[in-house]
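Inputs:
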Amino acid sequence: MHKVMIFLLITMSSTIFSSETTSITRSGYFHISYQSELEPITINQIHNWVLHIETPEGDPVSGAKVSVSGGMPLHNHGLPTDPKVTTDLGRGKYKLEGLRFHMRGYWELIVIIEIQGRRDTGIVKLNI
Amino acid sequence: MSKAIKMIATIAAILAITWFYVNPTDAGSWTKSELRILEELSIYSLPPLPPDVSNAVAQNIDAARFGHSLFFDKRMSANRLVSCATCHSPEKQFSDGLPKGRGIGLSDRNTRTIVGSAYSPWQYWDGRKDSQWSQALSPLEDPDEHGGNRMYYARFISEDPEYRRVYESLFGSLSHFNDKKRFPDAAGPIGNPAVFSAWENMTTKDRHMVNIVFANIGKVLAAYQRLIIPGESKFDYYVEAVLQNNNDKAETIFTKQEIRGLRLFINEAKCTDCHNGPLFTNNEFHNTGNLSFPGEMPDRGRINGVRKVLADPFNCLGPYSDDPTRNCPELTFVRKGAELIGAMRTPTLRNLEGTAPFGHKGQFQTLGQVLEQYNDSPLAMIGHNEVENPLGLSTSELESIEAFLNTLNSPLTTSPEWLNPPRLGISSIAVLQ
């Protein structure tokens, strides 16, 4: 019984705290994925990403207002920088500049997307 | 009798198992993820020094020689008794071994080492400077450090024949500043009211002329300070042996206590949350609940530092940066907010030997006291202590971590001639001491 519980806990925690390159926003309006200029993502290096935002049907979402925050929930602290979406690259792509991670571990990036009165939030999860 | 033997055997077994789990000391027992961390901490992972595009002479050897001379030149102060080396002594890891820096007066905080500081996007405990060259300017005008003013320094370079010659070879024509109506004896935006007023009465164009020379003084000092880099320590030799799977060699390099300390450092003690990478620092800002200096209000740290660096005319985005594109991501995307209250920049843990006391105010006399602080994790006087839970390590465990930290001392990679005041023949610049 204990072994089963431990197995379940390990499985659950690895699911909860694992990296995902795509995520679905809370209300299901958008799918978010990203591509990092720094690959593999390592600590203490400032770098940029390209965020891809699509509808659940796979249509690119351009012209949205996109902002980002986040941090390490298990450490109870935020990001060490204030990254910003600086350019709408078109076809659902947005340049996100100024990301840096200063510790190894589990990070969450909260992406807020607003377009035509519709606002939704997604969480990008990554383990560094 | 057999019952007694059984009992002794059981106790022995328990002790053996406990010893195995509590005190694993053999070099070959590192897990894959631990090995990755060890490799990341090793000096062999230190990348080549990143360019400083805001400083056009950062890589120029003549600028470094010029900076070398200025670094040791006591004429670079109001009383002609203080040089950069007064607080950043090469014999003390480019620090001073004092609670707070002592120049003309007593400085506000503990002197940070210059060793490896070229790798940091921020300078000072509060990161109020964003480059080595910009940092080098601040003590020159601080009344408690060098106590001078930028007009004095610009004229000093202009009037010294050797400095003038080298300056002009690097930066082009240098004014003589001999019109005292335009360029008074003492003028600068920091300092006493007479110095400030004289500065305010100068034209914008003349102030800019002086600022250019002042900034270039910082740039040659930085060209020199970029050369001050730590070398291989006992820890690095140990990691090299471990990564080569040469456990026999590894065990001749590290004692059992040092291995235990390293194991705690990267695991239970969570030191690598902040003291990570080959210089054992993430150069980020953390509130770790350090008590203030006796009799002083708590230091607000980064929350004030970020305001200062954004307003600094000598920052990466300012008019004295040599980067035509003003590509300054750290400054452009700098974070603000309440998390920065009382936060200080993580210091390197390499080459701590001879640099005690520790902490931003020199509040900790020994490394043991620093470790006790993390072990207890007190509430922060201002802001929030990021170390939310006491580590709860035993005295013996803390001693092991301290033993490990002492393996991080190393000679510098810097050539010995840079570590002493310049002599005739090393450079064409005159002897200054």
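The longest strand of chain A covers residues 106-115. Flag for discussion at group meeting.
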